[in-house]
């Protein structure tokens, strides 16, 4: 007999899917308004107009709900843009990250999820999966740049994509400096320049990770 799935990991259809979406949106609302510390399953059930027993039976714990929320966010995230150049692709990535982090709702939501991940292992694992999916989505643009001869063979695609978003998250979470479009463009340009110079070449593989 197969192992029973963890709460919140099943992807059902019909009414159950509608209930799931209502609960996840309610969880987003609560996180955006009050942060992780005040997230409560009973309050989420009230916001979603769903019975408390349904929420407790389906997700079990706050961390189970957060894990499912992150899985849903990964499923709904915007696909990557292909512009025909590495700089164009990285700029599109940086601007997408910047729009997400500066959106009043999404920015607050990501702050709350990151805060939750710092003190809960299951939420941290779900957050790692979320960003791994986003890295896999965007990494092929580096492989395409290798094929065009823009960057050296052996360039680590994931490191290039990380280099784009890292300064934007630094401003969001640490420095508090303005996070405008010019900042996003600079992050993309810096990552593209470093990639062209071979800063992200993995010397012992001889091939680009994720899509060469």
Automatic annotation (TrEMBL):
DNA-binding positions: 40-59
Pfam families recorded: TetR_C_11, TetR_N
Organism: Streptomyces andamanensis
InterPro entries (UniProt xref): Homeodomain-like_sf, HTH-type_TetR-like_transc_reg, HTH_TetR, Tet_transcr_reg_TetR-rel_C_sf, TetR_C
Residue stretches making up the HTH tetR-type domain: 17-77
Protein name stated in the entry: TetR/AcrR family transcriptional regulator
Domain of life according to the entry: Bacteria
Lineage: Bacteria, Bacillati, Actinomycetota, Actinomycetes, Kitasatosporales
Keywords: DNA-binding, Transcription, Transcription regulation
């Amino acid at each position: 007999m197969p192992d029973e799935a963890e709460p919140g990991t099943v992807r059902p259809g019909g009414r159950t899917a509608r209930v799931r979406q209502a609960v996840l949106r309610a969880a987003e609302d609560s996180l955006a308004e009050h942060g992780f510390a005040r997230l409560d399953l009973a309050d989420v059930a009230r916001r979603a107009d769903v019975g408390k027993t349904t929420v407790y039976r389906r997700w079990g714990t706050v961390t189970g709900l957060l894990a499912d929320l992150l899985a849903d966010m990964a499923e709904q995230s915007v696909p990557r843009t292909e512009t025909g150049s590495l700089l164009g692709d990285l700029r599109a990535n940086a601007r997408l990250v910047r729009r997400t982090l500066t959106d009043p709702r999404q920015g607050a939501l990501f702050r709350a999820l990151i805060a939750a991940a710092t003190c809960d292992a299951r939420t941290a694992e779900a957050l790692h999966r979320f960003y791994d999916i986003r890295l896999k989505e965007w990494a092929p643009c580096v492989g395409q740049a290798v094929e065009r001869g823009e960057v050296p063979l052996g360039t680590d695609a994931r490191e290039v994509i990380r280099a784009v978003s890292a300064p934007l998250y630094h401003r969001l979470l640490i420095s508090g400096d303005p996070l405008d479009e010019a900042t996003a463009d600079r992050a993309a340009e810096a990552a593209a320049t470093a990639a062209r110079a071979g800063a992200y070449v993995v010397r012992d593989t001889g091939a680009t990770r994720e899509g060469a």
